[in-house]
Amino acid sequence: MNAKRVVVIGAVALGPKVACRLKRLHPESDVVMVDQDEYISYGGCGIPYFISGDVSDVKELMSTSYHMERTPRFFEDAKGVRVRTRTRALSIDRKAKTVRVKDLRSGLEEDLPYDRLVLATGSEPNRLSIPGVDLPEVIGVSNIASAIAVKERIAKGQVNKALIIGAGAIGCEMAEALSDLWGIETTVVEIADQVLPIVLDRGLARMVQKHMEEKGVSIRLRETVKAIRRNGGTSALTVATSQGEIEADLVIASIGVRPKSNLAREAGLVTSPRGAVVVNRRLQTSDPDIYAGGDCIEVLHLVTGKPVFFPQGSLANRQGRVIGTNLAGGFATFNGVVGSFSIKIFDLAVASTGIPLHTALNEGFDAARALVVQADRAHFYPTQDLMYLEVIADRKTRRVLGAQGIARNGDALTGRINAIAAMLPYRPLLEDLANMEVAYSPPFASALDIVNAAANTAENILDGINRPVDPEEFEKCFLDAQADDAVCLDVRGPANAAPFVAYFGERWLNVPQETLKQRMAEVPRDKRLFVLCNSGARSYEALRQLETAGLCEAVNVQGGVAALKKSGLLELDHEEDTTE
Amino acid sequence: MNAKRVVVIGAVALGPKVACRLKRLHPESDVVMVDQDEYISYGGCGIPYFISGDVSDVKELMSTSYHMERTPRFFEDAKGVRVRTRTRALSIDRKAKTVRVKDLRSGLEEDLPYDRLVLATGSEPNRLSIPGVDLPEVIGVSNIASAIAVKERIAKGQVNKALIIGAGAIGCEMAEALSDLWGIETTVVEIADQVLPIVLDRGLARMVQKHMEEKGVSIRLRETVKAIRRNGGTSALTVATSQGEIEADLVIASIGVRPKSNLAREAGLVTSPRGAVVVNRRLQTSDPDIYAGGDCIEVLHLVTGKPVFFPQGSLANRQGRVIGTNLAGGFATFNGVVGSFSIKIFDLAVASTGIPLHTALNEGFDAARALVVQADRAHFYPTQDLMYLEVIADRKTRRVLGAQGIARNGDALTGRINAIAAMLPYRPLLEDLANMEVAYSPPFASALDIVNAAANTAENILDGINRPVDPEEFEKCFLDAQADDAVCLDVRGPANAAPFVAYFGERWLNVPQETLKQRMAEVPRDKRLFVLCNSGARSYEALRQLETAGLCEAVNVQGGVAALKKSGLLELDHEEDTTE
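Above: the input entities. Below: the structure tokens describing the complete assembly.
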């Protein structure tokens, strides 16, 4: 039952975890890890922080928490695992149960026999197929060697302008890394119409984009790169795009990754249309003696019920333990993912779990979202700060499908997102989220915490008693349209509303919510009413009052002035502080 | 079906939520709230922060997030809810469906008719039955009026020494409030043998106690207060305890609260032996026309399956919405609690959910715990800090029963605790927690996050491959015992171990884990072996190696040197930095 000889191909994240877990459970196993690279067992997700300077020495990404470098020698001495670096796996002979490997130093080839084989081959960056992509100034930052190369060029002062292709996670992290500490003039070109297009909905993405722009990063959406050429000007490169030309000394291509599964495919193992290795819940491939995990496999998405390619270093670690347990004769499963994500971009944290609204709609859910803006702890507690949290739910079943948010305090935000993520495998309904038990004390939560408030708001929307309109639709139908048939009913205090009344004139009506019942006659009955407060809470209250008065068509601007401003909409000159 | 006339007794937390939710759903309802106090709708949990000065104006505790004071006028204008303050409910006539109330200003009594009645009577502090308890310098801080009184006395410089009776949440918060900003010499007397005895296990409680002592608070455990008398000395009071006498200018009694249920009991409604109002999941009392919620009811504990009295402002808010929905003809339930708790004590956050080990054992679970000490984010990320997290699980079923922890970064800690809490209603197993999907990026999580690591460690303990010993047992059997048959095997680096080797001599053997296999012969085979590293991770690795070498009885000191030091054990003079 127990594996005697185990070969692990790949020694970055999953491989070492498999090997060490197996050796702890089953010390008599003979475990060898091979990797074509010199560097092994590193935290690839830390690369942007190495480039930014937050992590000063690249060795920190390759060290244990007690500052021991995870070298081949370390694995041998501390873990009893043999490691062969600069050794490439060429092919698998499943009948003979051998792996053909080549020592890249000596050029010698040999066959490594195995009882069980583990594929930890990871992913590789997608490559642009455009002229100039092979120039030395055009690089990815997917591995340690290229990260060191980038940082060296920067430190030598060779980079004044950088272009990042792709506004996904790596692209956004790199934009911060280059511009924040190094002061490099940084432009991000993205083919989609928003940043972070896979994980975020448009509304929050716009807030993230605004923050990046405030930090000096140029964001160019709906734009594709056509060619890169060396030039003789002040910058090393000229990048031709669908919209024009951009000068740069450095181009970082971060347009996603794809599973590295050549070995598996050539060995006849089942792979997905996208090229990921297909495994069962025990993480066995179609050959039960061959396991696979980490960035080279596809996993089940527990919200959609469909397979998904979701490469994350954290999954690799947990999958590695599952494989190690199974190799040792135990029984462990990896059941799937809910798709949690987090990122720090300058002073903003962004986090999400489950699926965004656009994915939910594509998947056929009758999905709706609720956006809530609320303090991240008791509103009277000194360190409180606004959090923007969106919940996505299915109208018919009231099932929670996902959540996403932004906040300055990333721990406060990820804490909420992780709590929602923890429920998602159990297919929670909105009422479950409404009653999620957040540990309450004023320094850490609100008495009615934002996660509960978001669920309540979503329930009200699904029940039809809160009729929301997104900031984007408000922009289109009110701000841009300049139509006379639309009026914004601002139910905040007069001091906050005054500059808007001055600017918009009759189209902006200020009636504080607590006076609305008395002043109902002032509200026009022949206009489209956009009701607005600072966060969306008082305007909901007003909506109820309007309905009682027979004004049943008014809509509530989700997230209120806070969301509009965070999105870069509604910025007036000479405006008073509206942090009410 | 829908209630026309609704009377709400109590206007602090639950009452206002019920009233406002009902009016939003069903504006034609006639809702009146009565409260015997002048102050209504305040955040009672914020009182310690008002006293400490973190919240400067008591009005902030009575205001909305947009700085409107929640006065009776506010409820009338903004919410359509009538409020009668200084109005005491005297009795309920369930047959006539009336509440007898007395206006405390005029002394006039009248009967308020109701279709539905809501009991939001809250809790009241337990009172000591000892001589002197009625002296004006002996107070509780359960309501705004007494909080204002305390702060006034302090601000006048009348308080140099304070005695707090009870080291529960309020007692600990008040200890910080009095000593941190005001510099008051503060002593806490607690009858139990630890601080926070209901929510924390002894190990973490000891760390909290040490932190409070480092901040200058005197903690006296296993001590009871016998009498309080006024004296003629420098301090106003002399407090006689089971252990001696303590001088103080101010005594704060914080020995817990009990449900205020006189009205309910006298009206013949079912109450628990402890005096809490008994309700169903819709929060109806034994009279279906009378609802109750908040601090006066008992709720189902979803981990033990038993009723529990668990007063928390956050529950009151969520229960208020449930009652409001039901009163409006909807259907909503409150299914129970998992017992989440959080508190800030000086620079330390403490949080817990589910049940602690001692409760689990009392409830008949075959419970075990795992204590893990790990960075709260990627260990290479600059702002990382150690978190101490304990998971409690049942050996037979492997069900997760609870979790608790301490950390400097309270948002990072409560984020983990809330995520575990979110799973608890679904009766998760350790393997579910091991695979909990924490949104990973280096600024906010570890690739193998501490919640996953804690579950893994618990699994290893239940599987018998990690044999833990608590810091307290290590203290008893090694540090205090001074027995020659016990040896501590320190598997850290020599620099860290040296001061301990120097102090303990032959009883402290240093063999770094990565050299253990080679140096196995040095490990004595006739001694009781306590294996130790900084956190418990490398010592677990060493445990596996020792077992392979036939040393199967060695035990692993949980939490390692980090936990021992945090508990105030193992403090040597002239010791080098051991932050490895």
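Note for the figure: Confidence is low (pLDDT under 50) at residues 576-580 of chain A.
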